[in-house]
């Protein structure tokens, strides 16, 4: 019954969103990939917002329900039927009578199951598509027969581009390069891989008083070079996200300098490698929004490259929705953790394979701790940490690893502002 009601709500809101798009005809920028969609979306919006009237998807609204809500400018009703009824009424009024509407929509689009992207493309044809990354084992592969089917589903977005549309893609991703050969395109990438239209290089951690505070990169485009800094977060993913944002900006005649200036004040989304001050003089890398093999690998590489700090403590929870690839990928994360961590803490049943992989590849058993209880893990981790330690915390959202971050952060009263899933609705889950 609940699913039937959801289907009805989705159908009505989608119909309303379709009417609104036909009335207002905004330029649609659609972002997809298995890693970095939300971060890229937010960076693109930051570049555009001072130059055009733009709207972005709220949070990570990228589903069959989230996209029409974003088009209509409505929030989620969670499990409250009265709120959903109000959304339907408000959606009808907006679709039929609204006068003011953004010129540009920056929409995140994801897939959980076969047919998801195709259904979205039946009514939301994009003008610009941004492809972030399509790794060997993508997120949400559990409901597909093969990783290639996930890629094929996401590629419906590219095939739906308007005739004059533009594709902006990650040129360092081999699967993407192969899939987009015959599409009008602009590429972004990193200098140590393939030459791109927008090439980033020299990603370096910024230290202040021997403490990591962000990263700095250089971007080159048609003989012009600019530098940009990201404060409050770490990882090479920012080079990709910001390059994509600058590339989109050029489609709206935003000069590179102006784009870099806008990004200088941009704050990456919560739970995406955010630096948070921890108790006892520690540094927390909060990557608790979600987890997948590609994202976990990237996070571990970032920890490995950090210098001049205390112990490197890596907290890894279950990666969900991996289906037949779950055991192999958890074991592989253990191998990578053994190269990055002084202490490994695992959360959840699946992550026991991470512990096994780390032990097999040289991490001492005395430095591996396994937990099924989040509260206990947070309590005992608090006893392990010492000044100058760096603590990476990453898991799929079902693990709720943000609760450990809150336990460790120096100012837990700021949790509502700095952490993911802090709404009243999430607190009851």
Detailed description of the structure:
It is a single chain. The protein folds into 2 domains: 2-263, UDP-N-acetylmuramoyl-L-alanine:D-glutamate ligase; 274-427, Mur ligase, C-terminal domain (Protein-Tyrosine Phosphatase, Chain A, Alpha-Beta Complex), CATH 3.90.190.20. Helices cover 39% and strands 21% of the residues. It contains 16 helices and 15 strands. The strands form 2 sheets. The chain has a 9-stranded mixed β-sheet with strand order 2-3-1-4-5-6-7-8-9, sandwiched between helices. Strands 10-11-15-12-13-14 form a 6-stranded mixed β-sheet, with helices on both faces. The model has no long low-confidence stretch (mean pLDDT 94).
Question: What's the structural blueprint in terms of helices and strands?
Answer:
Elements: H1 2-24, E1 27-32, H2 37-48, E2 54-56, H3 66-72, H4 81-97, E3 104-108, H5 116-121, E4 128-131, H6 147-159, E5 166-170, H7 174-179, E6 185-190, E7 198-208, E8 211-221, E9 224-231, H8 237-250, H9 256-263, E10 274-278, E11 282-287, H10 293-305, E12 312-317, H11 326-340, E13 343-347, H12 352-360, E14 368-371, H13 374-384, E15 390-394, H14 402-408, H15 415-418, H16 424-427
Parallel strand pairs: 1-3, 1-4, 2-3, 4-5, 5-6, 6-7, 11-15, 12-13, 12-15, 13-14
Antiparallel strand pairs: 7-8, 8-9, 10-11
Helix pairs in contact: 1-3, 1-4, 2-8, 2-9, 8-9, 10-11, 11-12, 13-14
